[in-house]
Design brief:
about 180 residues, alpha+beta, 7 strands, about 35% strand
Length: about 180
């Protein structure tokens, strides 16, 4: 049995802690992230604090799982990774990942996604994970395809960003055993 699904030689994934409030608040309220979500107004600290306090950190209870991505060399939280829209009866969920700007391009997202996929498929026995990626988001397309996700659909004019509609690729990774 694998020692831990939540750590490799560079990062670890951990549950959210109360001290993560400011970082989560900052990331959720970054308007540059809103084009990949369905949220269009800022969260208050109060709402984010309630979210942290009320999360049971149980994917089956919450129907989602959010973990912090922490760099091992200095213990800094560099982002979050999620499974949302968890459907236990169908053994599937949707992946989301955000890396703080100053830590992008160093391979941390791939490390986190690899760990999350191992946990989802080998421990939780999910059948599949999906992700929606804007077709012009080359970095995210490379990330997910490098971790075994395959494009299975195209959603035309799916996102409205800065006055223009963008296409979104639907990518899927299916556990084969």
């Amino acid at each position: 049995m694998k020692h831990s699904y939540f750590i490799n030689d560079r990062i670890r994934l951990r549950a959210m802690e109360p001290e993560d409030l400011e970082l989560i608040y900052e990331m959720e309220n970054d308007p540059q992230q809103w084009d990949i979500s369905n949220f269009t107004v800022p969260y208050s600290r109060y709402v984010m604090k309630q979210y942290l306090e009320n999360s049971q950190c149980d994917m089956f209870a919450d129907k989602q799982l959010r973990m912090m991505i922490v760099r091992l060399e200095d213990g800094v939280a560099i982002g979050t990774i999620d499974i949302t829209d968890f459907a236990p009866i169908h053994a599937r969920g949707e992946v989301g990942i955000v890396i703080r700007k100053e830590f992008r391009g160093a391979g941390y997202a791939k490390d986190a996604l690899t760990l999350l996929c191992e946990y989802a498929f080998d421990f939780l026995y999910l059948k599949q994970l999906i992700v929606h990626v804007a077709t012009d988001n080359e970095a995210s397309m490379r990330l997910f395809t490098s971790c075994g996700f395959v494009q299975c659909g195209l959603l035309k004019d799916w996102l409205f960003v800065e006055g223009c509609f963008k296409d979104v690729a639907l990518l899927q990774r299916i556990r084969m055993n």
